Each structure stands twice: as C-alpha cells, then as structure tokens.
C-alpha cells in the first residue's frame, strides 16, 4: 500500500490523538478516519457524476470539450467501477 496511517485530534469531542486515520494518493487522493473515543467517522466518497451535472461543470470550465471515450477506455471505466464498487448515478 502506498498510503499512510496517522492519528489526529478529534474536532467533535476534542479527543487528543483519538482519530485513527488513513490516507492514500494512489490511484487517487483518498482519506478516512474514525474517532475511537466518540465514533465520529469520515471517508472519501466515490461516484460518477450525472450527465446533467457533468455538463454544468464543463460549462463552468469554459465549456471544455473532450474526445469521446474509446471502447477500450469505456472498458477501463467499467473495470474501475467494479474494482471500487462504484454505482452509476
Ligand atoms: Zn471524537
């Protein structure tokens, strides 16, 4: 694994170093943690943006355009979604 484990102070209960956290930068930035004192927990959420939302986001970036995904790229997307248990919106 390329990630690292660490402890952190809890912003909810004020516990000192009561959060056990893990972060990784591969294959994308992610973080998760749990406070062993009060139960506060957080994690990086994965998903696929809906087509409508995607169009809105592209519009905010000067209507950026991309080439259509090739069939190989589409297959890579499917495998990625399966590996990370991502459901389409
Ligand atoms: Zn806490």
Outline of this structure?
This protein has 89 residues and is an alpha+beta fold.
Name the beta content range: 15-25%
First and last CA, distance: 29 Å
Cofactors, ions and other ligands in the entry: zinc ion
Structural class: alpha+beta
Primary descriptors:
89 residues, alpha+beta, 2 domains, 22% strand
Structural write-up:
The chain is of the alpha+beta class and 89 residues long. The protein folds into 2 domains: 1-45, N-terminal domain of TfIIb, CATH 2.20.25; 47-89, no CATH class. The chain contains 2 helices and 4 strands. The protein has helices at residues 51-60, 71-83; strands spanning 4-8, 19-24, 30-35, 41-43. It has a 4-stranded antiparallel sheet with strand order 1-2-3-4, with no helix packed on it. The radius of gyration is 18 Å and the shape is elongated. It binds zinc ion. Zinc ion binds at residues 10, 12-13, 15, 18, 35, 37-38, 40. Zinc ion is lined by residues 10, 12-13, 15, 18, 35, 37-38, 40.
